[in-house]
Amino acid sequence: MKERAKELRKYSTLSEVLLWNELKNKKICGLDFDRQKVINNRYILDFYCPSLNLAIEIDGISHDNKYKYDAERHNYLVGLDMRVLHFSDDDIKKRMGEVLFDITEIAKQNQA
Questions:
Q1: What CATH topology corresponds to 2-111?
Q2: CA geometry: angle at 49 spanning 48 and 53, to 5°?
Q3: What is the DSSP letter of 81?
Q4: What pLDDT shows up at residue 82?
């Protein structure tokens, strides 16, 4: 799984690169985010904030017709008491301000 995560980092989608540029270097509330984080050697998350136990997933064409798998994955993560945010590829490309607002609001709620 670690090798697969490394490969995914190397060949990131445009949306992943755009969001990573906003999350890296603790730009949101001083929080550290990981990219392509392996969870329990079972799933790879697009982004993960350990201090908030927050997963951020970008749902693009790779998620088309994978509804059952995505639901199982989501439920597994929620079962780990993880908060999971899903954004579409278009959200990242066209509504980045709203995406960052949502992430910042969750960060603020958990820091209060």
A1: Endonuclease; Chain A (3.40.960)
A2: 95
A3: T
A4: 96
Break the chain into its structural domains and give their ranges: 2-111
Strands in 34-39's sheet, in edge-to-edge order, are 34-39, 43-49, 54-59, 83-88
The pTM is what? 0.90
Closest CA to 23 of 45, 56, 53, 51: 56
Distance CA 84, CA 74 (A): 7
Distance CA 64, CA 73 (A): 14
Burial class for 47, CB neighbours closer than 10 Å (0-12, 13-18, 19+): buried
Q: pLDDT averaged over consecutive 10-residue blocks of the chain (112 residues)?
A: 87 94 95 96 95 92 69 94 95 97 92 64
